[in-house]
Amino acid sequence: MWGRQVKRHGTVARGASRRLRRVPKREDLKSILVLGSGPIVIGQACEFDYSGTQACRALRREGYRVVLVNSNPATIMTDPEFADATYVEPLDVATVEKVIAKERPDALLPTVGGQTALNLAVALDKEGVLARYGVELLGASAHSVELGEDRILFKKAMQAAGVDVLRSGMARSVDEAREIAQPFGFPVVVRPSFTLGGTGGGIAFNADDFEAIVKRGLLLSPLHEILVEESVLGWKEYELELMRDVADTCVVVCSIENLDPMGVHTGDSITVAPQVTLTDVEYQAMRDDARTVIRTVGVATGGSNIQFAVNPKTGRRIVIEMNPRVSRSSALASKATGFPIAKIAALLAVGYRLDELPNDITKKTPACFEPSLDYVVVKIPRFAFEKFAGASDVLGVQMKSVGEVMALGRTFPEAFGKALRSLETGRGGWTAGGALSMPRAEALRVPRPERIHAVLDALRSGASVDFLHGVTGIDPWFLERFREVVGLEAELKAAGAEALASPALLRRAKRSGFSDEDLGRLSGKTAGEARAARLAARVEPVFSRVDTCAAEFESTTPYLYSCYESECEAAPTANRKVVVLGSGPNRIGQGLEFDYCCVHAARAISEAGYESVMVNCNPETVSTDYDTSDRLYFEPLTFEDVLAVIEKEKPVGVLVQFGGQTPLKLAHPLQEAGVPILGTSPEAIDRAEDRERFGELLAETGLAAPPWATARDAAEGLVAGARLGFPLLVRPSYVLGGRAMRVVYDESALRGVLEEALAAFPGRPVLLDRFLEDAFELDVDALGDGKNVVVAGVMQHIEEAGIHSGDSYAVIPPYRRVPREALGEIRAATRKLGEALGVVGLMNVQYALRGGRLYVLEVNPRASRTVPFVAKATGLPIARMAARLCLGDTLEEVGLTKEPVVLGVSIKAPVFPFRKFEGVDTILGPEMRSTGEVMGRDRSFGLAFLKAAAGAGIRLPETGTVFCSVHDGDKEALLPIARELASLGFGIYATAGTAAFLSAAGLEATPVLKVNEGRPNVVDRMINGEIHLVVNTPLGRDSFYDEVAIRRNALERDIPCLTTLTAAAAALEAIRARSGGPVGVSPLQESLV
After folding, report:
1. Cβ distance 486 to 460 under 8 Å?
2. Which helix (H) or strand (E) holds 766?
């Protein structure tokens, strides 16, 4: 069921004509193991879902048996149809060795799973696993990986090859680091070895900073070593994406230039492709260096990413680093050029040459033809600092962004303006409301996510390009383009409403990336009025194709972007079509899970005989791969841009329920514009989202909810709060990921939270619910066909109420404390709600059980983030089924007439980015903070939890000492957990109050000082390796400092820290299960019986 690239168009890569003999595809290989990248984390996100999926598909098409290991249930890569054996298991040496022993693959492909896969492959090699089972590494040898990843070896190899590098040295202690840095002077860059996205690194501007960064870097590096190197702050940064085959043909797929100068991690920088500021001579020299690097490191086949820095004053060029694998930038380069890097890398790894592989887009040129671009691509990162109170938003060498957008245009300003409005940060494009003032120098000098807007404001205030170049380090070429945009903006503003009557001025504005919202704001009109005037002036977008060859050959693949040129290349067919609106940039609360649903929707549409049309702006995802849909439009998900696609394609309808809140916000405007919305109606969606209408729905169905109220200002909220009583759960409406959601216990806290929520989402009501303490929550995913509703899966949250569902461990089927009659009541309530709303497609309902009574917390008649997890647990492609329901099939026709039986136990565990945000407390609450998830699957709850925890990077100890510090109200519930841990051989440390309670109950517990009680305290004992597990439930304001210190130190030292007793009980069950014998592995294709 399941045209600025600096080279001649059509040039064949160097080496492609020097053929001595044909190198055939590897016929000696039958089975290939592919390592995935694990959960979505900052520094390693959806791009490896895309690359891994491409590689698995390519290898299977070639007839190889593909074995996949990946712990991430949210990726479509781990759907059973993409590999012959799919192991959703922890990515560690012990587990992968079990898979190898069971599957006996001939080879392992580690280059499409990011740093996680590469590190794991190196570990498997060093521990002798690959040699023991006769498994060959494909794409890059262990030596090449080590040479590319070990900074000192890389430095020596580059110097020997004549490629300039930074002065640097490796250190394993603070003293060694000081000695290395002494000749450089400050600032100094510190980079830990083998960490993702620069985790633990930083730029030291003085001796105190240096010592702190060095200590943290040594702690977080798996090898406890760091690179100390001279600073190149302010230099220009470039990346080249290369491919190499067995015949030594090298192609440069794409050049990328960072708008932000060196000092900002490339993942956090605005980037442009192709590079635009190097001369032809400079660019050709960089290409030559890149080829030297890839050959010297010895990447035999596949893709590599090479980063360079160039001194803007002297022209000195140095190589910064080389990733001997498909990288984060590879996805961007693939989408920017149409060249399928991961697919080609997989095929090169099994012996193909570049000249033997056809270009999928032209069908006429081979892969050894380097792509040429006649358009400009801009990537802008997306951040989530609002989720981490107290976190510094200053950007540096450690990556902090959670996602990104990409836009294409015929000019740099056009692409940039489209990228700005793709971010969904409340700005409609170039312009923003509010008073104009000259930004402070600090806002321009210090790199932050909003710096680009400070630059624009400075230009509006009269700042010169030279001044801004001096203070920001941004190349004058980019600043000149921004100055031109600001000049055009002033011209539009001066013309006022008359601007909308000038076709020439409107066309100039659109070619510079101005949105209809921009035009409305500048002319004193609404966006709708600006749109109407533009259409009346016949200023309409056309669509150009991404063809890899700057139009030298005809494109056979409809991969399109909008622009304001004279010729339209869309060439829509007369076939019946359905448009799928994607989910936009990855962010906390709306991540990979929704792209998963969109991909399934596109496939279902094609299988049903329609043409599928995808609209999305995220370069990291499978949905924006050119062969996922029949037609792909890389466009912002705004009303203006989406409607332009719809008017061109004329579909029978649009699907908005699969991409999260982004497309849902467009449902009403599109419907009002006459666009048919397929699936659950916008009216029904609004009935579930609007709290007052939702209350009427519950009354109609006879279902209970916690007492609630709505408020549109702080005064109204305070009155409602006093009436409802504390504690209260406060949240804005129409949000994902619990944005600005808080539990408050008194009036002063309520006032602050109301002000925050009202400021974050002006014009929207704030919802107040009586918070149900001591309740536990359940999630239900269901499908409906407009008449009937079938439950697909019931999940129980392991933590009690108060933690966002996305941050909670969840188990399917429910495992304890849920009476059979309560489950029956939940299923009946879900059917009632779905039928009352007329749900067509997917629906998610969240419930709370307290004191035997069922409460409905919320209903979402759309795809939820749990859909991929439920699909893996049940073995049913429920997203694809839901799409077919939206197209008119019945539940019976899709084969879902009753709730599927779940064999074994599946547990979803969240993964958090706290290490990226120094000093932020790790305690969880109702606002979502996790970036990804993993899945544990086995025959028992304990083993499934053990695997889920391991997949999330939590290594539960087998023996050692546990430290307990819990709230007075939790002490009775702690006692049986502590007794069981003691019986398993654990020693017990506890704070004075907890130790006294445990001792009085007959359990030996050693008192330990709190942080503020003296030395040696609990943190000292953690640093000394005396504590191996922490159970710490929040104790209140008086102990806040102590608790934050405990939780942060546990995080930094990889000590499992459990902040709820339900999680502690689950961990205990896992530890007990492991003591019962060896832990096995099984693929999704095998049933757990």
Report:
1. yes
2. strand 766-770
pTM, entire model: 0.92
CA dist., res. 571 & res. 556, Å (int): 11
Print the SS3 string covering 493-547: HHHHHHHHHCHHHHHHHHHCCCCHHHHHHHHCCCHHHHHHHHHHCCCCCEEEECC
CA angle 682, 561, 402 (to 5 degrees): 70
What is the C-alpha to C-alpha distance for residues 628 and 606, in angstroms, rounded to an integer? 10
Give 131: exposed, middle or buried? Use CB within 10 Å, 0-12, 13-18, 19+. Answer: exposed
CA angle centred on 252, ends 250 and 258, rounded to 5°: 145
Which pLDDT does position 987 carry in this prediction?
95
How far is residue 734's CA from residue 712's CA, in Å, rounded to a whole number?
14
Give every CB contact of residue 763 below 8 A, 6+ residues apart in sequence.
none
Six-digit token string for 311: 């001194």
CA gap 742, 757 in Å, rounded = 9
Identify the pLDDT of residue 550. 65
Torsion of the alpha carbons at 695, 697, 703 and 705, rounded to the nearest 10: -20
Q: How many residues does the chain have?
A: 1089
Place of tokens 């170049």: 469
116-120, 407-411, 549-553 — most confident range: 407-411
The whole-angstrom separation of Cα 148 and Cα 1019 is 37
Contact present, 677 and 664 (Cβ < 8 Å): no
Buried b (16+ CB within 10 A) or exposed e, 816-843: eebeeebbebbbebbbbbbebbbbbbbb
DSSP 135: P
Reading the block at residue 739, the tokens are 């944005």
DSSP string for residues in 676-695: PEESS-HHHHHHHHSHHHHH
**CA–CA gap between residue 242 and residue 245 (Å, rounded):** 10
The Cα 911–Cα 679 span in angstroms is 32
The percent of the chain in helix, strand and coil, each rounded to the nearest 5, is 40, 20, 40
Distance of alpha carbon 339 from alpha carbon 362, whole angstroms: 11
Closest CA to 41 of 515, 763, 592, 726: 592
Partnered with residue 791 across adjacent β-strands are 782
The residue behind tokens 């590689």 is: 55
Mean predicted lDDT score pLDDT of the chain: 90
Residue 230: strand pairing partners:
188
Q: Cα(367)–Cα(242) distance, rounded to whole angstroms? A: 12
What is d(CA 852, CA 850) in angstroms, rounded to the nearest whole number?
5
CB 251 within 8 A of CB 367: yes
Rounded Cα distance, 706 and 770, in Å = 6
- Pairwise CA distance, residues 987 & 1028, whole Å: 10
Q: How far is CA 1070 from the centre of its chain?
A: 29
The type of residue at 18 is R
Q: Over the stretch 185-215, which tens digit does the pLDDT of each residue have?
A: 889 989 887 666 567 788 889 988 898 899 8
Terminal Cα-to-Cα distance of the chain (whole angstroms)? 21
Within 926-1003, where are the H helices?
941-951, 971-983, 992-1000
Q: Is the pLDDT of residue 180 over 70?
A: yes
Classify each residue of 1065-1081 as buried b or exposed e, where b means 16 or more C-beta atoms within 10 Å of its C-beta. bbbbbbbebbeeeebeb
- Residues in CB range of 210: below 8 A, 6 or more apart: 177, 178, 181, 186, 188, 190, 204
Beta partners for 578?
612, 653
If one counts every other C-beta atom within 10 angstroms of the C-beta of residue 127, the result is 13
Beta pairing, strands 653-655 & 708-711: unpaired
**Distance of alpha carbon 579 from alpha carbon 820, whole angstroms:** 42
Q: Which of 479-488, 673-682, 747-756 has the lowest mean pLDDT?
A: 747-756
Average pLDDT rounded to a whole number, residues 500-515: 96
Read off the DSSP letter of residue 104. Answer: -
DSSP classification of residue 358: B
